[in-house]
Amino acid sequence: MKGAIKDMHFGASHLLFKRAEELRKFQTHEELVMWGLLKGNQLGYRFRRQHPLLFYIADFYSHQLNLIIEIDGSIHNKEDVKINDELRQKEIENLGIAVIRFNNKEVKNNPELILEEINKKIEELKKSSVQNSPLDSGVEEPSERLLPSSPLDSGAGGLLTSLQAIIFSAGLGTRFKPWTDLHPKALAIVNGKSLLQRNIEYLLQYGITDVVVNIHHFPDQMVEAVKKNNGWGSNVMISDESNEVLETGGGLVKARYLLDDDQPFISLNVDILTNLDLNKLMAFHHLHKPLVTFGVTSRKSSRVLLFDVNNRLCGWRNLQTGEEKGPHLQFAENDERKNQLVEKAYSCVVIYEPEIFDLVKQTGKFSIMDTYLDLAADHVILGYDHTGDLLVDVGKPESVAIAEALFA
């Protein structure tokens, strides 16, 4: 749903999320066949599998279309199960969500016919003038997503079109006072546009239109800004941290169920402005197949990351205090590899493989950097050097003038 803020789970309980996670690990053959037809925006719309919604778990759900696709096994032929299915479907349809059902035999024997029926339903929904749920935020959804011309048109850009992103926007912005005494830092203005708008539009250049935004500081202002501006052309989903400050790592874990579990995704920090080419970053990630890839540069910073000759993350160093963390500390003093480590500054533009969620050991409030350093010994985490690109950390009021000189 373009530009709207809507609870795509309709208040589903935490237990349902846990159950859905287990179901994804043990999909039936028919569910795998269907997922092969739906995943990766193949039909022009994003579908999610085993999606918690209200009191139920939908087999497949498109938030853009307000459409559920169910696959019924033989148990659904029982009379009592049929009655429950009808009641469940009616309750879901009362939310403004359409439901289409297929049985296992149809999916197994006639996938082409199934695909044809789904496409017919999509066309029907696109032509319908009523696609919003009664619980919607009031922002109307266009029947089709129209993307601007962008860097996608050549090279690795095609790898980005079906990806999601999260913009970390929940910080207190203590360095950005006095603005943050009354406003969230994400809404600070640079040449007439907020930091949040600039980052959403940066992603939009590459066809990335499904964006999670986490909120904590003045959350109502954040929600209102997204509603008022219709998401700046993107489908914005809110990860609400109003009651707790989770930092980047905790914020990422909390937003897990808003992000695809099936393909890579991107994170940005709302106070970083850059022109790093995401096509090139993704091509690097796709070529080397690490768990995580993030942008780095040789710019000056008080805290740096340490990389070996293959751009693999080995540690972290505070240049002011001399504190060090990370797997490189396992090297003996006479080990030449320790002397070959290169210092680079973190750019806060990151591509993750979805497996990251199953590997994170930290809980509650924590920095994503802790996770990087924890996993770097046993998993490949790479730095992509984009030195020479524009990059400004708009973390302090005095940084605004610098950003305005570089970003129109």
Question: Could you list some keywords that capture this structure?
Answer:
Endonuclease, Chain A; about 400 residues; Spore Coat Polysaccharide Biosynthesis Protein SpsA, Chain A; alpha/beta; 10-stranded mixed β-sheet
Percent range of helical residues: 25-40%
Assess the beta-strand content as a share of residues.
15-25%
Biggest sheet record: 10 strands, mixed
State the CATH class of the largest domain: Alpha Beta
Protein structure class: alpha/beta
Give start-end ranges of low-pLDDT stretches.
129-157
**Might you state the CATH topology name of the largest domain?**
Spore Coat Polysaccharide Biosynthesis Protein SpsA, Chain A
C-alpha Rg (nearest Å) = 23 Å
How does the overall form come out from the CA principal axes?
A: globular
How many distinct folded domains?
A: 2
The CATH fourth-level homologous superfamily of the largest domain:
Spore Coat Polysaccharide Biosynthesis Protein SpsA, Chain A
Q: What separation lies between the terminal Cα atoms?
A: 29 Å
**What is the residue-mean pLDDT, rounded to a whole number?**
86
Q: Tally of extended strands?
A: 18
Number of helices: 13
In CATH, the architecture of the largest domain is Alpha-Beta Complex
Describe the model.
With 408 residues, this protein is of the alpha/beta class. The protein folds into two domains: 14-127, Endonuclease, Chain A (3-Layer(aba) Sandwich), CATH 3.40.960; 151-406, Alpha-Beta Complex (Spore Coat Polysaccharide Biosynthesis Protein SpsA, Chain A), CATH 3.90.550. Helix content is 30%, strand content 23%. The protein has helices at 14-25, 29-38, 79-93, 104-109, 111-127, 195-204, 219-228, 247-254, 278-288, 336-339, 356-359, 368-375, 399-406; strands at 48-53, 56-62, 67-72, 98-103, 164-168, 189-190, 193-194, 210-215, 235-240, 265-269, 272-274, 292-297, 303-307, 313-318, 324-325, 342-352, 381-385, 391-393. The strands form four sheets. Strands 5, 8, 9, 10, 12, 13, 14, 15, 16 and 17 form a ten-stranded mixed sheet that branches. A four-stranded mixed sheet has the order 1-2-3-4, with helices on both faces. β1 and β2 (56-62) form a beta hairpin. α8 (247-254) crosses α12. The chain is globular and about 70 Å long. The model is unreliable at 129-157 (pLDDT under 50).
